[in-house]
Design brief:
It catalyses: GTP + 4 H2O = 2,5-diamino-6-hydroxy-4-(5-phosphoribosylamino)-pyrimidine + formate + 2 phosphate + 3 H(+). The protein has 192 residues and is of the alpha/beta class. The protein has a single domain, classed as Rossmann fold. 36% of the residues lie in helices and 27% in strands. Strands 1, 2, 3, 4, 5, 6, 7 and 8 form an 8-stranded mixed sheet that branches. Strand 2 and strand 3 form a beta hairpin. Helix 4 crosses helix 5. It is globular and about 45 Å long. The mean pLDDT is 95. The chain binds guanosine-5'-triphosphate (GTP) and zinc ion.
Length: 192
């Protein structure tokens, strides 16, 4: 995997002061994906790590259809308090991309759930991979983590690191994401 790594820069936020560093992943087809790490100056020996997948609608637009935006805020808050890092992976729509995610949302408007909509479009329920996480953690010389997730598949998929503890990342449901969260629990095995 060919990865270009940026310098470290300061990022003051409403959650406190962080550092950021970008990782540009060269893909086989000549395209690239730019990921971001957001981390604290002080890092405990076993830091809290959140592997967050891009959700433009949830992270930036305040969408109520999912729990992504609130999970990101929770993660930044936790990391600011206890030390650690967020690995923000550009795997929009569980890696089907923004255009396909909007098509999936359109199918959900017609009654399909989040998994069935992906299948209808010819994708699996979750198309993400996590090789980048191994690369990032090696860069930070992190070998043991406390992982913020409810997703058992994510825990299984992370290689090259010892997950000392899983920390739940549960945010309150709302009328728009109740069915989505239920599907994540029943069809994708999320620990909700
Ligand atoms: N294809 C698709 N992607 C979605 C949908 N809703 C959210 N996403 C994407 O799902 C990703 C987040 O995954 P989640 O399944 O919510 O959570 P997770 O990261 O697997 O698990 P946690 O670590 O517990 O949060 C982001 O990339 C979102 O863009 C949807 O209805 N369809
Ligand atoms: Zn989302």
């Amino acid at each position: 995997m060919n990865v270009e790594i940026s310098e470290v820069a300061n990022l003051p936020t409403k959650f406190g002061n962080f550092k950021i560093q970008a990782f540009k992943e060269q893909l086989l087809d000549g395209c690239y994906k730019e990921h971001l790490t957001i981390f604290t100056d002080q890092m405990p020996e076993v830091p809290i790590v959140r592997v967050h997948s891009e959700c433009l609608t949830g992270d930036a637009l305040g969408s109520c259809k999912c729990d992504c935006g609130e999970q990101l805020e929770y993660a930044l808050h936790m990391i600011q308090k206890h030390g650690g890092l967020v690995i923000y992976l550009r795997q929009e729509g569980r890696n089907i991309g923004l255009l396909n995610k909007v098509n999936a949302y359109s199918l959900q408007d017609k009654g399909l759930d989040t998994v069935a909509a992906n299948h209808q479009l010819g994708f699996s329920a979750d198309e993400r991979t996590y090789e980048m996480v191994e690369k990032v953690l090696a860069h930070f010389k992190i070998t043991k983590i406390r992982l913020l997730t409810n997703n058992p598949k994510k825990i299984e998929s992370l290689k090259g690191v010892e997950i000392i503890e899983r920390l739940p990342i549960i945010v309150e449901a709302n009328p728009h994401n109740e069915a989505y969260l239920q599907t994540k629990k029943s069809k994708m095995g999320h620990l909700l």
